[in-house]
Structure formats: C-alpha cells, structure tokens
Design goal:
By secondary structure, the protein is α+β, with helices and mostly antiparallel strands. α2 packs antiparallel against α3. The chain has three helices and eleven strands. The longest helix has 11 residues. A hairpin with a 7-residue loop joins β2 and β3.
Length: about 200
C-alpha cells in the first residue's frame, strides 16, 4: 500500500479563488484519470481546475487565454472515508537526507534485479539490496556519506518495500534536489520532498 500526499500552495497558481464558509473542501477522484488529463497538457497551454459541487471536478486545458476553445474534462468524484487515508505521525528511529537524484539512481539500478527492496542498517552503514531468480544486487553507504543522518537506536534495522512504488516517488528528483528518507522496523517508510529543498 502506498499513500502519496501533495500540498499545492495557492501562491503556485496565477489565479486562485475560494468561496465557501467551510475551512476545507475534500474532493476525491481516481488518480489515473487525472494523470491522463495532465498528460494531454502541452507546455504552452494553461489549466483551469474548478468544482461547483462535490460531485465532479472540471478541468479545462486551453491556449492563449482562449478558454472557450479549450478541452473540457469532467471527473466524477468518489466517496471515501478520508479518516483511513490520513498519514500518521511516527517518530522514526532512523532519518537521513540525501541527494534525490542519487537515491533515484540507486533504486532504479536495484529494480533491474528484483521487485522488493531490502534496507538494512548496521554498524553505521546502510545497505540497499534486491534479489530475484536472475541474481541479486546490493549497495552500501556509510551514514556520513549522506547530507544528514539521525539514528535513535543501537539496534540493527531491516525493512522491505516494493521498489516500483519507490521508483515512482523518486521520479520527483527532477523537481526537488534533496529528499528526507525515514524508516524503522515494522512501520511504513516515509519519503518527504519539501519546497525549500529546491534550488
């Protein structure tokens, strides 16, 4: 299971309007449909996203401020219990900060030899490993090689994660130069990209 959360600040938009008495509006749609629509937007086009109710999301892609000749999409909203989708706060035993392109390269190379990534921490060292019937690959890094590291345990750590999810996440290295990477035994991995980490 993978949970992805993106916070888009209103300052990122050329125009932003919000008209509601409530503090928060939650609109939920299928991410694959949203991805298809965004893939149709060219670099010289603009996007307008709005919702008049909580039943559908309207997306218009247009060029040269000519919104009337744009492509209009409507995505039906789905009802979910948002309580189960909230990430919970964990005080991780091991946290590190690393160059995001470097971590992307490590995961991408490891994915050639297996679907499951093993992360081991022992003796001031992190070992990334994956294996399959075709062979195995591992890479070790001393913790001083990372930008920052913070370890709150004397025990060895061993975790396993699906590497395809990690590759999707780490493709954000094109936008964010560093990533905060936290893990410990028997809890979900946390990967956080922050805007202030960009150049």
């Amino acid at each position: 299971i993978c949970l992805y959360e993106l916070c888009i600040e209103k300052e990122w938009f050329n125009e932003y309007e919000y008209h509601d008495d409530n503090d928060t509006i939650i609109l939920t749609c299928t991410s694959s449909v949203l991805n298809k629509i965004m893939g149709l937007c060219k670099s010289n086009e603009s996007i307008k996203i709005d919702s008049e109710d909580e039943e559908k999301i309207n997306i218009t892609i247009f060029e040269n401020d000519n919104i009337d000749n744009g492509k209009l999409f409507q995505i039906p909203c789905i009802n979910i219990d948002t309580e189960y989708l909230q990430p919970y706060n964990i005080d991780y035993e091991f946290k590190l900060t690393i160059n995001s392109k470097e971590l992307y390269t490590i995961f991408n190379e490891l994915s050639c030899f297996g679907d499951e990534l093993q992360i081991l921490y022992y003796k001031e060292m992190i070992k990334f490993k994956t294996e399959s019937n075709e062979g195995c690959m591992s890479q070790k890094k001393k913790i001083y090689e990372f930008i920052t590291s913070d370890c709150n345990t004397n025990e060895n750590l061993f975790c396993k994660y699906q590497i395809n999810y990690l590759n999707h996440m780490m493709s954000l290295y094109k936008v964010f130069t560093v990533v905060n990477f936290s893990f410990q035994n028997d809890v979900p991995l946390s990967i956080v990209f922050n805007e202030e980490d960009t150049d």
